[in-house]
Automatic annotation (TrEMBL), chain A:
Keyword Lyase (UniProt): yes
Origin species: Streptomyces palmae
Protein's name according to its UniProt entry: Beta-hydroxyacyl-ACP dehydratase
Residues annotated as signal peptide: none
Keyword entries, A-Z: Lyase
GO MF terms, alphabetically ordered: lyase activity
Keyword Phosphoprotein tagged: no
SUPFAM superfamilies (UniProt xref): Thioesterase/thiol ester dehydrase-isomerase
Protein family according to the UniProt entry: Belongs to the thioester dehydratase family. FabZ subfamily.
InterPro entries, sorted: FabA_FabZ, HotDog_dom_sf
Lineage, uppermost ranks: Bacteria, Bacillati, Actinomycetota, Actinomycetes, Kitasatosporales
Automatic annotation (TrEMBL), chain B:
Protein name as catalogued: ApeI dehydratase-like domain-containing protein
Classification via SUPFAM superfamilies: Thioesterase/thiol ester dehydrase-isomerase
Domain ApeI dehydratase-like: 29-110
Record InterPro entries: ApeI-like, HotDog_dom_sf
């Protein structure tokens, strides 16, 4: 089975909140490498006053960096669930449950490309624990000790209701 | 350093409601409120047809509250977010909701950590623990 390098074929995120560009490598059930280039055109930099401010104010927001990493995890999780799900079992959608031990390195700046390296640590029927690091060149900009994602039925996105316990 | 010109994912303003210094054994603490409007960029494409605030945005709100109510500096230099020690997401935040942040500081070997609870009127949405370090290169 071959997989697309386009993350949008695997995850539901779109528009402002699609924060991964390209799947470089993926081994279902094991690991993935996913890239994202930070752009000064992203919405965070369009808030009045930000674009003109000194470069130290242009550090890629921690939340966006983490969310990009999350989406790289979602790519691996969706690839894995689609590979191993039967025709009867809907692959479902991964939703973030918890983080542990996330450390930030130096700030990431517009124009830089982040490469997320994600690995599956534990796999259960309805959840997965992942770990990984993100690099800009040789610089490690993010380390994630553990992230837990939980499988939710895909219908949850259209029903207007989210099950208790997760985003 | 965080100021109004610093890039962030949640455009809404964090309003500090109270900030207390260390006194009589009580840790420094703060409470804040922010309204997450339907026009927030973070709802755009997350997801189409079903808007829900990304959990990482709650981490950001905790961080901005912390930076607006820093405890006494343990070393020279500026405060820097070093780690998200833990985050647990319990309940979603939808467009238009107000998020309350309750934050308590405690000393660590390298600086301070804060424990935060972020809530909507329905109850806790997330619990986030952040670690800060102070240094010249922050």
């Amino acid at each position: 089975m071959t997989f697309s390098s386009d993350p949008a074929e695997l995850i539901p995120h779109r528009d402002t909140m699609l924060l991964v560009d390209k799947v470089l490598e993926v081994v279902p059930g094991e690991r993935a490498v996913v890239a994202k280039t930070v752009s000064i055109e992203e919405r965070w930099y369009q808030r009045p006053g930000v674009r003109e401010a000194a470069p130290e104010h242009h550090a890629y927001p921690h939340a966006a960096l983490l969310e990009s990493f999350n989406q790289a995890c979602a790519v691996l999780v969706m690839t894995t669930w689609r590979s191993f799900s039967t025709g009867v079992l809907e692959a479902g959608v991964p939703m973030l449950g918890t983080y542990n031990n996330v450390r930030f390195g130096r700030p990431v700046l517009p124009g830089e490309t982040m490469v997320h390296h994600i690995r599956i640590e534990q796999e259960h029927n309805e959840s997965m624990v992942l770990t990984g690091e993100s690099f800009v060149g040789e610089d490690r900009v993010l380390t994630v000790g553990h992230g837990l994602v939980v499988r939710r039925p895909a219908q949850v996105l259209g029903s207007g209701r989210v099950p208790e316990g997760q985003h | 350093m965080i100021s109004d010109e610093t890039a962030r994912t949640v455009f809404g303003e964090v309003e500090i409601l109270s900030a207390g210094d260390q006194a009589d054994g009580q840790p420094p603490q703060a409470t804040a409120r922010v309204v997450v409007g339907a026009d927030e960029p973070a709802f755009d494409g997350h997801y189409r047809g079903f808007a829900i605030l990304p959990g990482v945005c709650l981490i950001e709100l905790a961080h901005r509250t912390a930076m607006a109510a820093l405890p006494p500096a343990p070393a020279a230099g500026r405060a820097r977010l070093a780690a998200v020690e833990a985050a647990r997401f319990q309940d979603p935040v939808f467009p238009g909701e107000a998020v309350t942040v309750e934050l308590k500081w405690e000393r660590t070997e390298d600086g301070w950590r804060c424990r935060t609870v972020l809530s909507t009127e329905r109850g806790p949405s997330a619990r986030v623990r952040l670690a800060y370090e102070w240094g010249e290169s922050a």
